[in-house]
Amino acid sequence: MAGGFAVSGGGGGDYEGKVTAFVIMTCLVAATGGLLFGYDIGISGGVTSMDEFLLKFFPNVYHKEKNLKEGGTQYCKFNDHMLQLFTSSLYLAALVASFAASITTKAFGRKISMLIGGLIFLIGAVLNGAAMNLGVLILGRLLLGVGIGYANQSVPVYLSEMAPPKLRGALNVCFQMAVTLGILIANLVNYGTSTMKKNGWRVSLVLAAVPAVIMTVGAVFLPDTPNSLIDRGQKEKAKTMLQKIRGTSNVDNEFEDLIIASDMSKQVESPWGNIMKPRYRPQLTVAVLIPFFQQLTGINVIMFYAPVLFKTLGFGDGAALMTAVITGLVNVFATLISIFTVDRFGRRPLFLVGGTLMIICQIAVGSIIASVFGVDGLGTFSKGLGNITVAIICVYVAAFAWSWGPLGWLVPSEVFPMEIRSAGQSINVSVNMFFTFIIGQIFLTMLCEMKFGLFFFFGGFVVIMTLFILFFLPETKGIPIEDVSRIWKSHWFWKKYMPADENTHV
């Protein structure tokens, strides 16, 4: 046991309890759902840079890359809509699946959604590894997307509900930590399989089955959250589970607040209609704008297409894949910073410091690429300048990994009251997946058309979203999840949407 805590509850008393080994292990198992998301993000960029894969499924891109005189500039050599569809189709499927996951999560519990997500992802991984044509390849990607939609909808909510208030940030960030580990593992796998003479891409794709098995098996043994058990009428079981995860029998205040929140949620006939009411305007705004801005940081330019991007910058095949591994390592270690600081310093400071560094790095990378390639895209990087560019990109990845990466999932998952939580998380996931799909589908075209200006484009959005955090996001550190709604009542802007008789649960 790591220690005890006592925080003010909505029922007027204190929540007592300890940070138990049981709840930490439970949350760590649940967070492995992030491995699915991370592995796929990392694997697709490496696979699409492999010659054997391109020659089999995208021969036009292969020949364009091998003969720049025919294919045009460095900026455009990977520009192909079907190649982008291979990456982006998954996220379109995840968007649609997140709405089905919302219904499943509310009706049957969070763990059932994780189990469904893991099984469907497993089928998709097998299809991808065995694909003999582009149709089967895309079908496999769509099934992976359904799995990710279920996992991303249920896991952050599960973590927020199981974690004690003082550790909710750190345990929820474990989901993002698993995402970064998945990306790193995928980059290492790609680096290894790229040396295989045949079928290296198949090995890379089919190994996505490993995190799917981990999540599926883990979900079988996970307990359901007290919030979900109460919501489904299992109050005695919920109280027993709350006592177990808090390490004390004295959970009456917290249990009472959960009952109140659940009773109020049952009075809501339509969560989807209710979430549009003015009183939920702050939460809805956060659930839409934070995932929107997260994708407009430009991070997926690095994570989806890192090897492709580095090859565009003039690196060889092996060097491009190894550079992707380096950025993956930076991503993992910087996420650890978030885990150890998010509940000490709060969400806002990490957002603001990370955003400022990201702005500087985007401007620096855009300026360097402009000086080397210019508008015609016919220049080449020197080894020294290439290494400097990689170093700046690593700083950018680190800044994202302790701020917009984990907090983009944490904050939306903890601001919704129970009566609209599943609907709110579905909106969060669907907005995230939609703009992930858009960026994945058009990035290579944008790079071809906007050239070095693309980095300034993303940098401009980082300025806007950092200002949004500064002025419109209140701090949620250490506040019980069923009491978070009170933060809007004292906010200079959002308080006007709060009814005069608003209680702590809304």
TrEMBL record:
This is Major facilitator superfamily (MFS) profile domain-containing protein. GO terms for molecular function: monosaccharide transmembrane transporter activity; symporter activity. It comes from Solanum commersonii. CDD domains: MFS_STP. SUPFAM superfamilies: MFS general substrate transporter (SSF103473). It is a multi-pass membrane protein. GO terms for cellular component: membrane. The chain crosses the membrane at residues 21-39, 82-100, 112-132, 171-189, 201-222, 284-306, 318-342, 349-373, 385-405, 426-446, 452-473. It is found in: Membrane. Residues 26-477 form the Major facilitator superfamily (MFS) profile domain. Belongs to the major facilitator superfamily. Sugar transporter (TC 2.A.1.1) family. Belongs to the major facilitator superfamily. Phosphate:H(+) symporter (TC 2.A.1.9) family. Pfam families: Sugar_tr. InterPro entries: MFS_dom, MFS_STP/MST-like_plant, MFS_sugar_transport-like, MFS_trans_sf, STP/PLT_plant, Sugar/inositol_transpt, Sugar_transporter_CS. Keywords: Membrane, Sugar transport, Symport, Transmembrane, Transmembrane helix, Transport.
